[in-house]
Write a structure and sequence with these properties.
- The protein is α/β, with parallel strands linked by helices.
- The chain is about 35% helix and about 20% strand.
- The protein contains 7 helices and 7 strands.
- The chain has a 7-stranded mixed sheet with strand order 3-2-1-4-5-7-6, with helices on both faces.
- α1 packs parallel to α4, α3 runs parallel beside α4 and α6 packs across α7.
- The longest helix is centred in the first third of the chain and has 12 residues.
- The model has no long low-confidence stretch (mean pLDDT about 95).
Length: about 200
């Protein structure tokens, strides 16, 4: 596995391979549409930066995108996904992108900024997704959006009903009257904080 990761990283930096992503083309198009003109976006779980680049390209010219990922180093003390993500996000010049190399529950500890969009795609265990929801959703402005990746079972997809994001979204839709499901695209579920 490590050898494949290193080979992919070298091939990427030589321009021979694109960055890896676990999002579908329909999900990426949806994220771009939803992020258009937004000024304060957080992405939890960055991987190789494909969705982060899309968010940055679409957000307001004076917007800020916070990218939260611990980027754990591999055997040689290097996180190849980190180097790819930094390069991918740097290909867009819109607004400002800030990397927070921490676990999401660490990054939120001193958080004070209001947000108009959150993309949750970090640890997929039920407990971790629920914690991300509880930690970050209070900062979402009325009308703001939360997109959960791998949270919807779809035809030909990989998501199971027992997966953490699926269970968290189901719990929110049943119990949290402040939020409504706006749309689902492949494995992506988008919730909106009700205005007012």
């Amino acid at each position: 596995m490590y050898g494949k990761t290193l080979i992919h990283s070298v091939a990427y930096h030589l321009g021979l391979e694109p960055p890896h992503t676990q999002t579908t083309s329909r999900e990426r198009a949806t994220l771009e549409r939803l992020a258009y003109g937004r000024k304060a976006i957080v992405e939890l779980g960055v991987f190789e930066g494909v969705s982060a680049r899309i968010l940055r390209r679409a957000m307001a010219s004076d917007g800020r995108l916070w990218l939260v990922d611990p980027f754990f180093p591999g055997r040689l003390g290097v996180c190849w996904a980190r180097s790819i993500a930094i390069r991918e996000v740097g290909r867009e010049a819109r607004g400002e992108a800030v990397f927070l190399e921490k676990m999401s529950f660490e990054a939120v500890q001193r958080w004070t900024t209001s947000l108009d969009m959150i993309f949750i795609d970090a640890d997929h265990s039920y407990e971790a997704v629920l914690r991300d929801w509880r930690d970050w959703s209070p900062f979402l402005e009325p009308g703001g959006l939360v997109a959960f990746h791998d949270s919807c079972v779809f035809a030909g997809g990989w998501v199971r009903p027992t997966d953490g994001p699926v269970r968290v979204v189901a719990a929110i839709s049943e119990a949290d009257l402040d939020f409504e499901i706006l749309e689902s695209v492949d494995s992506l579920t988008v919730l909106r904080r009700r205005p007012g």
